[in-house]
Every structure is written in structure tokens, then in C-alpha cells.
Amino acid sequence: MRLYVYCHYCRNRIYFNSSARTRGELPFQFVFTCPQINCSAHGFDEAYFRNEVIAESDQSATLSGTIILGAFGALVGGPVGAVIGGLIGAKAGSNTDQEDGIAIEEFNNS
Questions:
Q1: Considering the entire predicted model, what is its pTM?
Q2: N or C: which end of the chain has fewer CB within 10 A?
Q3: Average pLDDT, stretch 18-23?
Q4: Residue range 86-106: average pLDDT?
Q5: Do 1 and 103 meet the contact criterion of CB atoms below 8 Å apart?
Q6: Cα distance between residue 32 and residue 66, in whole Å
Q7: How far is the CA of 58 from the CAs of 2, 4, 14, 19, 93, in angstroms?
């Protein structure tokens, strides 16, 4: 799960790292600088409140798990192992997606 706020000026996403599972676990106020060079707020600190924070899925984690298990299967069992490893990785990724979706919904509804 990735957390972000929208820049007040250019409306681009500003991502940040946090292990919070609900908005109540976040500080009341944040200070971020917009990373977009063409934004009028670029280089300036801007205050954001925890009710502006939104959660979204981190698809890269699921994809990397599928690739790693597929590669491991290929090392162990050749082409057939790669297919089997990829299928196992896809199933594990599907379960992770479901859990992540529940966590995202819980966060965004908090």
C-alpha cells in the first residue's frame, strides 16, 4: 500500500513512506515539497492534513513476487519449473492483492 497527497497547486501526487494502517495513526499535519519542477510550489514547503492522505495499491510488490518465483522455478526445474513457479507466484500475488485491497479500503474509509 502506498500513501500520497495531491499537491495543492499542480494536483500531482506526492508519495511518502508510512506504515500507518489508518489515518488515525498518521500525524495530524505533514509538510511536503512538490517534486514537480513545473509546479508553482516546487521548492516550497506546503502543509497537508491527514484527512488529505489517500492509499493506493503498490502493484510492483505483486509483480516482483511473480518474477522471483518464476525465476526460481526456472533454476530448479527448467522451462516447466518456470511455468509452475510463475503460476505459484501469480496465486500468491492474487492473495496479496486481496489483502492489500482490504487494507486500502480500510485506510481510505478511516
A1: 0.64
A2: C
A3: 89
A4: 71
A5: yes
A6: 34
A7: 6, 12, 15, 13, 11
What one-character-per-residue DSSP string does the chain give? Answer: -EEEEE-TTT--EEEE----SSGGGS-SEEEEE---TTSTTTTSEEEEEGGG-EEE--HHHHHHHHHHHHHHHHHHHHHHHHHHHHHHHHHHHHHHHHHHHHHHHHHHT-
Measured between alpha carbons, how far is 90 from 86 in angstroms, rounded to an integer?
6
Structure confidence at residue 10 as a pLDDT band (50, 70, 90): very high
Could you tell me the CA-to-CA distances from 33 to 5, 29, 37, 39 in Å, in that order?
A: 11, 14, 11, 10
> Cβ of 33: how many Cβ atoms within 10 Å?
14
For residue 33, which of 21, 24, 23, 46 has the smallest C-alpha distance?
A: 46
In this prediction, residues 76-94 reach a mean pLDDT of 65
Cell 496479496, residue located: 96
Residues 6 or more apart from 25 whose CB is under 8 A from it? none
Residue with cell 509546479: 39
